[in-house]
Amino acid sequence: MKKLWWLCSASLIALLTGCSETPEPTTPTRDATTTDVIAAFTISRQQSGVVESDGKGYVVLVKEDGGTSVIETTIMQHAQLDWNKDKLAFSDTENDYIVGTSTEVIPTDTKTDYQQALSLSDDGTVIGLYNDGYEEDSYVEQLITSSTKGSDFTEVEGYFQVTGFCDGDLYGIAEPLGKYQAEAERQGVEAKEADGYTRLMLNQLTSGTTVEEENVSIQAVNSSGQESTDAPCVDGSLYHLASIYADSGETTPVLRIWDTDSGDMTELELVTADGEPVTGPDQSTFEINGSSQQSLRGNDFDWVDDFGRAWRTDITTGISQKLFELVDSYDNSTDTRVVDFTENALTVVTFQQEAEEVRLVQYDRNSGEVLTEIDLPDIAKTIDDSSIWAVSARD
Amino acid sequence: MNRTVSSTIALVAISILTFGSLSPASATTETLSPAAQKQAQALVAESPELTESALVNDVEVYSASTGVSVESVLRQASSESAQSIEAASSSKKGKRTKKIGNAKHKGDVFVTPAFTGGVNHGHTGIYSAKPTIVEAPGTGKKSRSTSASSYKVPKKSYKMDVKTSQTKRNKAGSYAYNKLRGKKYSANFAVNKKTGSAKMNCSQLVWAAYKASVKIDLDGNGGLGVYPYNIKDSKHTHIYKTIK
């Protein structure tokens, strides 16, 4: 059914009639700049089931004074963003975008609507990885590079749950399928268990902005879940958190470190200074919320758990200390929280479903002091049943 | 198997009136009785992405392979579709505001309300690992893996395990992951209980994973088609989490 949209001024809630009850956010523009922008985040519905969709997504640029610019895009589940100096890149199914002193739109081949990774290189190339799905004998993701000179589209193999850029080269971690499953068999890498992800591969996907798919290593691991679209890479090693699942239902958080040269993988259990495993409050099942590319500084890996606690893990020992607690109210069954670390700050955007509140908070990443707190009521009222997928803060 | 066609026929009729623009009787339906034509049209109305020709083609193939007349197949399929709508009727159209989260076990399944063209046949998927869902997302998309931690569903969604050993659950989860690949989406729920189809829809994928790997039939009311709510209501599934 056709939806009718009525646009209102920035101080009013947009109303609509027809079959959908989703008002449009603050008037979308295709002419945004990054002037005074401190952070940006993405909004989109997920694509699953045979569901109706209005086909829209949004990128919200937030300024120091709390003002926003909203860029309308097509849907992109797990939409990512990346800053490179004063420019911000993001994507939708039809274009890549670079916002600086103006908004540059780069048409690409049509992509699928689920993003796994994004980077804006120094030379202005946007590199994006997208989750397409199963083929006959493998799992396909789309790797698109674009710049003012044009766009390239390649398919790579693997469901890359963890991605990160090491000196501009894209790496991904996935369960080996298709030809890589055969390679795992050939190497004699046996799964540790029959349940879940028990073999993982590290693949290089680009060399700079050129697609170059190469398997680095395949490792047997304990059944685990891992998800990181912006894993830090330092001195050629990629770092990410994972949750190991025991048959009892308990989860054990670990830090995995992959050497992109040798392919060796080191796994450290996260424990407190007393040697006790890191758990949720009241010994509840532990869940990781997020980390980002700048989580790692020296030997400190900073991250946030799903209970609103910021942690610091020593990458040489796995010993973890709770740094501070976030100020937001967050129900992890309904609300969305996305995080990004920069040199000195932790930026958090939270959407509270029940209260219909969107809040951006920036903390001193060491002390937890609240540096900035911005409520975005107009944005909140338009999220409807969409999700906030990622936030990227400017250094 | 209960094949009662009750007041759901009225629902079907309402569906025809409500969802309007039905394709005119094609050459493939002209040979059918008026009642069968109406049933075909109703089935298409209840599956807005399904075309009449695709439906009749699948029905004719099934008829040819089983000896059951096309008209009988349509009659039964129409009944099952109505039952699916009835089974889903307690779930109203709602926003996807709840996170479904990880599964207890590999091989667990979920069912959520999902509306297309105003018709709720639901949506379902299977956990190929505790944090990962494999699903057939919809028309034009490949079946794919997606993270459960950020997967949002409406109220009255369910997570279930299948009443069998974990070894068998693992086999089914792995089967979905390894064997049900490259399947394009089929909008035909009416006649979809085939494990080796080139095209599959969401409930067919889940059903096929268990049927083909460990011979457990998750279709709660038997018949020609398996819908998401048939899986929810199956005697082989156990709801351990209702998302309210």
What does it look like?
- The complex is a heterodimer of chains A (395) and B (244).
- With 395 residues, chain A is mainly β.
- Chain A has 2 helices and 31 strands.
- In chain A, the strands form 7 sheets. In chain A, strands 14, 15, 16, 17, 18, 19, 20 and 21 form an 8-stranded antiparallel β-sheet that branches.
- In chain A, a hairpin with a 2-residue loop joins strand 16 and strand 17 (210-225).
- The longest helix of chain A has 9 residues, at 179-187.
- Chain B has 244 residues and is of the alpha+beta class.
- Chain B has a domain at 98-243: endopeptidase domain like (from Nostoc punctiforme) (endopeptidase fold (from Nostoc punctiforme), Alpha-Beta Complex), CATH 3.90.1720.
- Chain B is built from 7 helices and 12 strands.
- In chain B, strands 7-6-5-2-9-12 form a 6-stranded antiparallel β-sheet.
- In chain B, helix 1 packs across helix 2 and helix 1 (8-18) crosses helix 4.
- The longest helix of chain B has 19 residues, at 70-88.
- The radius of gyration of chain B is 17 Å and the shape is globular.
- Chain B starts with 7 loop residues before the first helix and ends with a strand.
- Mean pLDDT of chain B is 80; it is low at 1-27.
- Classes of the chains: A mainly beta (395), B alpha+beta (244).
- Chain B: Residues 79-101 are annotated as: Disordered.
- Chain B: This is Permuted papain-like amidase enzyme, YaeF/YiiX, C92 family.
- Chain B: Residues 1-27 form the signal peptide.
- Chain B: Keywords: Signal.
- Chain B: Residues 79-91 have a biased composition (Low complexity).
- Chain A: This is Lipoprotein.
Supply database-style keywords.
heterodimer, A: about 400 residues, mainly beta, 31 strands, B: about 240 residues, alpha+beta, endopeptidase fold (from Nostoc punctiforme), two-stranded antiparallel sheet, 7 helices, about 35% helix, globular, disordered N terminus
